[in-house]
Design a protein that fits this description.
Helix content is about 5%, strand content about 40%. With about 350 residues, the chain is mainly beta. Strands 11-12-13-14-27-23-22-17-20 form a nine-stranded antiparallel sheet, with no helix packed on it. A hairpin with a 5-residue loop joins strand 22 and strand 23. The C terminus is likely disordered.
Length: about 350
């Protein structure tokens, strides 16, 4: 039987809306804490090779922190994850103008994206484990998007130390949709320093280069012989300081990788290893792309520069303006579905208590 989801007050928004914290614990003691403000993952306590729990995501201590920050810590991102050039696209002959919140561009849903709304929570449980469903209705015209979009995101923590994230959405008018999860991970622990020593493998032979404002150029380029070749496990910091125009545009890694996909469904996308603690993270997804972000703009308030990395499963940035990219337009009568699984483990040679 799944363990019950516990809930506690987390504060009140400026408009008087109460916000809660929800905690899920599995059979091995792994503990997930989520707030319904932005659907943010506040804490994820996972055991190391010695069986000691440590928080592997960067979270904030109070609702006030989430209200003040601008780094999307642990949040659900939508309606459109990543950037749309000039906040503008043409849909069925109509030009749509979105809110601009990243210089000349639209980023992560706009000025008030899904990371800043209070989601309606519904704890649940089944034979796989306990979870939390979060629901939100984004009205027509929200941040400039056409159509009313109804969204549900489900977090489930299994007894196999998997965080299973499922997204669904329906609309009453054509609209672009691209949802993701923006946790910053540090497998050494959230207070352990930078993540440059973590070893990363991404199952991608190509990536989408960007211009100086981080908008895709439209090119799909090979990773071979570039700092973006993570086909074999490589330390995140091994090439991050090279004099490469793409790294200079983003001040490090902030790029979409084109995942190898042979068939629909979940495919293994990435693996991260921290040899110090023995923790591992494997990411599998139904999405065609993976945005690897090395925490280049973290500024110490409260988490230091490059103290966490994000692996945002997604469709490609600016897809509404690139018909050659996988499509992102959802239409009435269709159902948007996406799933990503974050599986935590321990390197061989650990205590033997945890996989």
């Amino acid at each position: 039987m799944p363990r019950p989801v516990t809930r506690a007050p987390f504060g009140v928004t400026p408009d008087g809306t109460p916000v809660e914290l929800f905690t899920i614990t599995n059979a091995s003691g792994t503990r997930l804490t989520v707030t319904n403000y932005g659907g943010a993952i506040v804490s994820l306590q996972v055991r190391d090779r010695d069986g000691i729990l440590g928080d592997v995501v960067l979270g904030l201590d109070s609702l006030a922190g989430y209200l003040e920050q601008s780094s999307y810590f642990g949040a659900i991102i939508g309606r459109y994850a990543n950037r749309i050039a000039n906040g503008r696209f043409t849909l069925d002959g109509r030009t749509c103008q979105l809110a601009l919140n990243d210089g000349p561009n639209h980023l992560h849903g706009g000025i008030k994206g899904f990371d800043e709304v209070v989601w309606r929570p519904e704890p649940f449980g089944d034979d796989r484990g306990a979870g939390l469903a979060l629901r939100h209705c984004s009205p027509d015209g929200d941040e400039g998007y056409p159509g009313t979009l109804t969204v549900v995101v489900r977090y489930q923590l299994t007894d196999e130390d998997e965080l299973d994230v499922e997204y669904e959405a329906v609309t009453d008018a054509p609209t672009p949709v691209n949802l993701t999860q923006h946790s910053y991970f540090n497998l050494g622990g959230s207070d352990s320093g930078d993540i440059l020593g973590h070893e990363l493998m991404i199952r991608a032979d190509r990536f989408t280069p960007v211009d100086s404002s981080l908008i895709p150029t439209g090119q799909i380029a090979p990773v071979a012989n570039t700092p973006f070749d993570f086909r074999a496990a490589t330390a995140i910091g091994a090439r991050i300081g090279r004099p490469d125009p793409q790294l200079e545009h983003a001040r490090g890694y902030d790029h979409n990788f084109v995942l190898r996909r042979g068939a629909p469904g979940l495919v293994h996308a990435a693996r991260v290893v921290d040899s110090g603690t023995g923790r591992t993270l494997d990411v599998s997804t139904t999405e065609p792309g993976l945005q690897f972000y090395s925490g280049n703009f973290l500024d110490g308030r409260p988490h230091p520069h490059r103290s966490g990395f994000s692996l945002e499963t997604q469709h490609y940035p600016d897809s509404p303006n690139h018909p050659e990219f996988p499509p992102t337009i959802l239409r009435p009568g269709e159902r948007y579905r996406s799933r990503t699984v974050f599986a935590f483990g321990i390197l061989p040679g650990g205590s033997g208590l945890f996989r």
